[in-house]
Amino acid sequence: MKIYLGGPMFSYAEVYNNLRLAKKLRKAGFVVYCPNENDSINDKTRNDITAEKIYRADVEKLEESNVFLCQIAEDSGTMWEAGYMDCLSRYVNPDKYMGAIGLATDIRLKTIPDPQKCGIDNQSMYINQFIIGGLKLSLGVYTDEDLLINKLKSIEEDYERRHG
Asked: Any idea what DSSP says for residue 112?
């Protein structure tokens, strides 16, 4: 089973986290594509990398994968990828494409909402419910990496049972 690891990848902290999570997933036995490692589209010293090249390269890797692991953020590229994988798993080839699974790690998710405060004064985290609904209807949403990895192992076992 191949996993495409998607998520924000623009700050040093985001890149570091993506590479760390890719390593952890590989240590757990998964084959992982992490876009941060693809210099053909992410070498910032080059000026020949176009939006079209990035799109084609990432879609190719999505289509080579069985699962899209989505680090939930307000990153439109990640959300596009999640929707693309959801479409593949529902309408193109449900036998090959397992779906999208979410990892929500924003610490603000642990904040209890205060109904007396609204807008910027309510410190709880909001995640787009369309995204959450899609992920829940696909492979689920997790707030803990180890629980997510256990779910991925279960998905992989089911995949291997069906594909020998």
From this structure: P
Global model pTM greater than 0.85: yes
Alpha helices by DSSP H, 28-128: 39-42, 51-64, 76-87
Cβ-contact 70, 7 below 8 angstroms: yes
Residue 146 phi, psi dihedral angles, 5° rounding: -70, -40
Rounded Cα gap, residues 125 and 141, in angstroms: 15
The pLDDT value given to residue 128: 82
The dihedrals phi and psi of 112, each to the nearest 5 degrees, come to -75, 125
- Structural domains in the chain? 2-163 (3.40.50.450)
Alpha carbon distance 89, 163 (integer Å): 16
pLDDT in tens, 41-75: 988 888 999 999 999 999 999 999 999 999 887 77
Q: Which residues are 67's β-sheet partners? A: 3, 99
- Does residue 67 contact residue 4 with C-beta atoms inside 8 Å? yes
Contacts of 26 (CB under 8 A, 6+ apart): 32
